[in-house]
Amino acid sequence: MIIYKKIELKHLSGAKRFNLKVFFFTTSYKMSMLKILLVTGKLAYPILSEAVKAIRNAEIDIVAMDVPVAALMNVRYIAERLKGVRGYDYIILPGLVFGDATLVERATGIPTVKGTEEAWDINLAVEALLQGKSLSPRDPADKFISKGDSEKYLREIESNFREAFTVSGLRIPLRPPPFRIFLEVAEKQELSDIRRVEKYVDVIVVGFPVGHEDRDEVRRKVKEAIELGKPVGIDSDSPSELVEGVKAGAMFVFNMNERNIEALSQVKRDACFVVAPYEVNNKSQVVLSTLKKAKEMGFDRMIADPVLSPPLKGFVDSVKEYSSLREAINDVPIMMGILNFTELIDVDSVGVNASMVAIAAELGASCLLTMDKGKTKWSAWETREAGKMMSIAMSKSKLPKDVGIDLLILKDKRRIPREPSRGIEIGRNEPTMDRGFSRIYLSDEDIVVEWMGEGGEIKLHGKDALSLGRSLIRELEKRGVKPSLEHALYIGYELSKAEVALSIDKNYIQDKPLFKRIPNGENIDT
């Protein structure tokens, strides 16, 4: 049985009396159950009320503070309003509340921790407490629940998978999970750009264009890549460059095919060879015949790659080739160059990479080749996270959903209910002029805001938009300048856009929209 009750808490503080009207949502009580008080804001209250219906083994009360959202609360505010509350085993605050929840614990005498950042996930925090897990008074529960469990599963996967062979200490899975990520370095890509994502990849592949013949450059680039501390591969259509790369320390060769296999035999014991077809027809059969010949010649470490075709250029047929190859071999790992799809479609890479890793997982490809530049920047991280997601899902025989890892960056899984519009509808209006102007842009690592005009020049930089805005206003006030409220609002708006752009590594141009708008009835033409 589920019941609602309305309670008025009366709190006396000095000479003032505060009346806080709160609503409680309560499940039927059992003596063996934990009794937990959840604190939330007004907007999240309906979500929390719905979410706790799935909890069957705890008595849950919800108190909605007179604040719209959790981010506007702090622990001191909550502690003042919960003084005198008794009879609970735990108090759980929203994960986004600012401050240390031990302040609430001291005020109430009840152990107090932070819950999840998303109200819909509160059942995970409650279940963690029921299982005897420790949550934190300072950090959101997400840090200890989903991530902790997913990391545990990933460690188990890494300990128990079937290994094909080892190259430079890197264990290559015969079939996923797990996955190994190979990063193809573009010809003119700087090593500093590779350092940005090196922790997300297992192998760095140095590539050279068709027709390239410069063995000195091959040696130099391979040795530079080796200094990054990862196993290195070489990709060239020149057999002599491939051999030179192996002699310089490259441990993976892209690609061995039916035409160059004889030339590569001199280094057959010194590296792992990715076997890919030179011919474009019957690719899986060509790979199989090349593998057979290579084994007869004494090659002992090989990865099969029937080559993924780009979208609308034979992609589906190439997937069929992967399926045929998977059925035909059970002792050779398979590689999929997902960059052939991600690079050649003008779609945000995160969803494409995740989908391609899921396809690779079904086809038994444990080795994934990606590229990380331009519109596919951060593909290394996206592919790594997608690999983790698919690995956990495969190990638990479930869909890649609710596994503790996600790639939901621009969209949310659950929609928070919106309130109806109230008040006066406002269209576009023009700003009033002020006594100075501001310029906002992104540097390599920070948001930069500059003020020019009355009060002289001010230049500030940092990563937190709100702190930058406050600091600019305070600096102007020191100089006797008080920008108009409209101008201050505009600066805050643009700083917020810049912070979002910085957080997802997107371009930011002042006064320009940050994203395309999804069409609806009002903006379908824009």
TrEMBL record:
Coiled coil: none annotated. The lineage of its organism: Archaea, Thermoproteota, Thermoprotei, Sulfolobales, Sulfolobaceae. Residues 165-391 form the Pterin-binding domain. This is Pterin-binding domain-containing protein. InterPro entries: Dihydropt_synth, Dihydropteroate_synth-like_sf, DUF6513, Pterin-binding_dom, PterinBD-DUF4346. It comes from Sulfuracidifex tepidarius. It comes from the Archaea. PROSITE patterns: PTERIN_BINDING. Signal peptide: none annotated. GO terms for biological process: pteridine-containing compound metabolic process.
